[in-house]
Amino acid sequence: MEKRSIGMVLTPKFWNDKRQLENIFNLNPAINPIESSLLDEATLNSVIYTTLNDLSNWARLSSLWPLLYGTSCCFIEFASLIGSRFDFDRYGLVPRSSPRQADLLITAGTVTMKMAPSLVRLYEQMPEPKYVIAMGACTITGGMFSTDSYSTVRGVDKLIPVDIYLPGCPPKPEAILDAIIKLREKIAHETSEDRNEFQQGKRYFTRKHRFHIGSSILIEKKKKFFHQSYKYHESALEITPKTSESISEIEKFENTRV
User: Which residues contact 130 (CB under 8 A, 6 or more apart)?
Assistant: First the structure.
């Protein structure tokens, strides 16, 4: 009945070609749709061959959602990217206020010891895969505070992994765009093995990592200087029993914290 109804609408020229009738009534799907006669040359030119890995990389690099962690003057340079002169929206960047919706962390400015746990906590709350751009000299090495500051972290890579280092004091907006382009190129050539290579526990110090109080690396130099210049006794540099008790109490308190 189905063949009879189809035959009623066929023109006479199709009845003369038996092969065309067989193709019409053949309902088996083609193994390779590209080889089907239904696809003309225009359709073949519009087909794009790719892999799931490349498609995933293209989707992620075209829509980076940054979490802005600005603590000093470097962040002012990044704020200029939002304007129409540089227009970072053309790269698909959408700033987010929640780390659970972001996949790019941009650290701009000085990171202190007290702020280090908060920074690591924000990084842990970001879903995988995630990336970090260290912006400015203070973020990368501590900057002007790296020599004699007791509360500055000498490099944010001691806390979280960094994908792109952007030096400068502060870096220009053009340099920030160049760092974003470099990160997009890295994502484009990324594979699933590369994403699984670095585990969270092996890449950075977690929040449970504690900074233990230790002696300064300059103590030996200080001893020599004291002996040569002022002839101080070595006992002047020793820690008193009262100070050691205070240090032990601080360590005991730190170990009891979650």
Answer: 102, 103, 104, 105, 123
* pLDDT tens per residue across span 35-55: 445 555 665 666 677 777 777
Overall pTM > 0.85: no
Strands 66-70 vs 104-108: parallel, antiparallel or unpaired: parallel
Q: Can you tell me the distance from the alpha carbon of 224 to that of 230, in angstroms, rounded to the nearest whole number?
A: 10
Distance, in Å, from the CA atom of 40 to the CA atom of 8, rounded to the nearest integer, reads: 27
Q: Find out whether 163 and 129 touch, Cβ atoms under 8 Å.
A: no
225: Cβ contacts below 8 Å, ≥ 6 apart: none
Quick one: DSSP state of residue 213? -
- Greater model confidence, 181 or 192: 181
Would the annotation count 160 as a binding residue? Answer: no
- Residue 91 token pair: 């790269």
Q: Is 73 annotated as a binding residue?
A: yes
Query: Does 169 belong to an annotated binding site?
Result: yes
Q: Is 156 annotated in some ligand binding site?
A: no
Assigned CATH for 55-203: 3.40.50.12280
Measured CA to CA, the distance from residue 231 to residue 32 in angstroms comes to: 89
Amino acid at 215: S
Angle at 167 between CA 135 and CA 134, to 5 degrees: 25
